[in-house]
Amino acid sequence: MGDTIEDDPRYAKLRKFNAAMGLFHFVQAVLMVLVSNSVSLPIKSNFLYYDEVAQTISTRTEVLFELPIGLAVAAFLFMSALAHWAVASPWLYPWYVRNLKKNINYARWIEYSFSASWMLVIIALLVGIFDFGTLLLIFVASMVMNLCGMLMEMRNQDRKEVDWAPFYVGCIAGLVPWVVIIAYFVGAIAPFSDTIPSFVYLIIVSLFITFNIFPLNMIFQYRKKGKWADYLVGERGYIVLSLFAKSILAWQVWSGTLRG
User: Fold this and answer.
1) What's the CA gap between 6 and 115, in Å, rounded?
2) Tell me: the pLDDT tens digits for 39-57?
3) What is the DSSP letter of 258?
4) What average pLDDT values come out for the chain (260 residues) when binned by 10 residues?
5) In sequence order, what DSSP letters do the residues of 50-93 get, joined into one string?
6) Torsion angle, CA of 244/245/249/252, rounded to 10 degrees?
């Protein structure tokens, strides 16, 4: 018989680690709400209409709503806090451990599909993408990428040879938002390179690098590179990477636009 949950101290340590990370995210989220100013960005959409004067079809841009950036940033920190506390709770902890023993963490991918996708929407807003439809597509493409991560773990639980198809599909889905974001960013800085705030450059470069370390963590897991032969090493890697990515985005945005 395998060890019970109580018999293996690694899972108990991981439970405490999740609880601590939840607290760290929560404290940052509360601070973000308290110390941020009221800066908002417009979410827009374009509509066709018939111009009776010109007698032609034209487009008009309408602002659908204003998104408070401080609250938007705090949102993905709150998401992570709730996810960490959920898997550390008495109700979901046994389920969490059972899944880890099968080399899968459903909770991680569900949380990422919302929090990481929302992070990309915020990055897109910072480079000037305000169109609701484009932002929605960026969100959904990122969500598909993260759900492909879950599918990767689902398909490879009992296989001797790794099926990389979900990984490749996820990479394609995850690349598209960055192509759009970088295209807009390059288009924005081309005529105004001397006036673009440095924090925007830092966000694009640092988050692009950090987001691409996540798939490396998965590659090391499935190739069983060194310590990554133990699935729990990769699990801790995801937790640390998530904290790092969310923290640097949150406080870079705050330092650049949200200081009161």
Assistant:
1) 31
2) 999 999 999 888 888 889 9
3) I
4) 63 97 98 96 93 86 97 98 98 97 97 98 94 98 98 93 98 97 83 64 89 96 95 97 96 88
5) EETTTTEEEEEEEEEEEEEHHHHHHHHHHHHHHHHHHHHSTTTH
6) 40
The token pair at 235 is 């699990």
User: Which single residue is written with the structure tokens 């993905």?
Assistant: 76
Q: Produce one character per residue of 48-73: b if its CB has 16 or more CB atoms within 10 Å, e if not.
A: eeeeeeeeeeeeeeeeeeebbbbebb
Q: What are phi and psi of 65, to 5 degrees?
A: -170, 165
Sign for the pseudo-dihedral over CA of 123, 126, 129, 135? positive
Owner of token pair 């018939």? 50
Tell me: the pLDDT tens digits for 8-50? 899 999 999 999 999 999 999 999 999 999 999 999 999 988 8
| Residue 72, amino acid | A
Q: Which two tokens stand for residue 96?
A: 């969490």
5-258 classified as CATH 1.10.3210.10: no
45 by DSSP, 3-state: which?
Answer: strand
If phi > 0 it is left, if psi is from -120 to 50 it is alpha, else beta; for residue 46 that is beta
Q: Where are the beta strands (DSSP E) in 182-224?
A: none
